[in-house]
Amino acid sequence: MRVAVGLRLGLDLCVPHECHCGSRVDACGVRSFVCKRAPGKTIRHHAFNDLIARTFSSAGLPVTKEPSGLFRSDGKRPDGFTLVPWSSGKALCWDVTVTCPLAESYISAAARESGAVAELAASRKEEKYADFDGRYIFEPIAIETLGVFNTSARHLLSDLGRKISESTGEAREASFLIQRCSVLVQRFNAILFHDSLPAYDCTD
């Protein structure tokens, strides 16, 4: 909770220190959320992708994660793929990314409009998988560390929530889904922040 509130209000989270990667972490801890060597980033990606896959399954749509056969020319593949058509007779594949609007490279875009960084990340994903056009429906799912989704991902999650509501009778499923995603992001913000702190050797 302290990390979540501190990020939202721009408060100091720590005393400046050196990250495990050798970079300097300032008092706001921003470096913690962009460090490529943080072990929590890979775990966060898998956890988020698991949540999206379970949501599709709850909506009655069987999926497979990291599907073989959907490779780009460089061998990379999306995070998931529906095994039945989503719309217009086409299956949907998705790719998840979490980005930090507080990073120096994104500050200008983030200052202009809420969610601008998520939209930028989504556009990059669309360019990355442009070869899929016509064969599948591709949906980038980009969320900022402050909890904002790109517009098309919000619509997708809303549609999934509606489908789940139809089977459960609970009208708030879409809201619950957004909340689960936001809580997951905030939990991993705390994990990434603690990843940057030096480990204390109790044997000294």
What's the layout of helices and strands?
Layout: H1 2-9, E1 17-18, E2 24-25, H2 39-58, E3 63-65, E4 80-82, E5 92-99, H3 107-112, H4 116-128, E6 137-144, H5 151-168, H6 173-195
Parallel strand pairs: 5-6
Antiparallel strand pairs: 1-2, 3-4, 4-5
Helix pairs in contact: 2-6, 5-6
Structure characterization notes:
The chain is globular. It has helices at residues 2-9, 39-58, 107-112, 116-128, 151-168, 173-195, and strands at 17-18, 24-25, 63-65, 80-82, 92-99, 137-144. The longest helix has 23 residues, at 173-195. It contains six helices and six strands; from the N terminus they run H-E-E-H-E-E-E-H-H-E-H-H.
Keyword list:
204 residues, alpha+beta, Trna Endonuclease, Chain: A, domain 1, 4-stranded mixed β-sheet, two-stranded antiparallel sheet, 6 helices
In summary, what is this structure?
This protein has 204 residues and is an alpha+beta fold. It has six helices and six strands. The chain has a four-stranded mixed beta sheet with strand order 3-4-5-6, sandwiched between helices.
Q: What's the count of strands?
A: 6
Q: Any low-confidence stretches, pLDDT <50, length ≥5?
A: none
Portion of residues in helices?
A: 40-55%
Order of helices and strands: HEEHEEEHHEHH
Number of domains: 1
- CATH fold call: Trna Endonuclease, Chain: A, domain 1
SS element count, helices: 6
Q: Terminal Cα separation, in Å?
A: 31 Å
Q: Mean pLDDT score, rounded?
A: 88
Q: Give the DSSP E fraction (strand runs of 2 or more residues).
A: 5-15%
Which CATH C-level class is it? Alpha Beta
Shape: globular
Radius of gyration: 18 Å
Structural class given helices, strands, pairing? Answer: alpha+beta
Strands across the major sheet, in which order? 3-4-5-6
CATH architecture level-2 label? 3-Layer(aba) Sandwich
Report the major sheet.
Answer: 4 strands, mixed
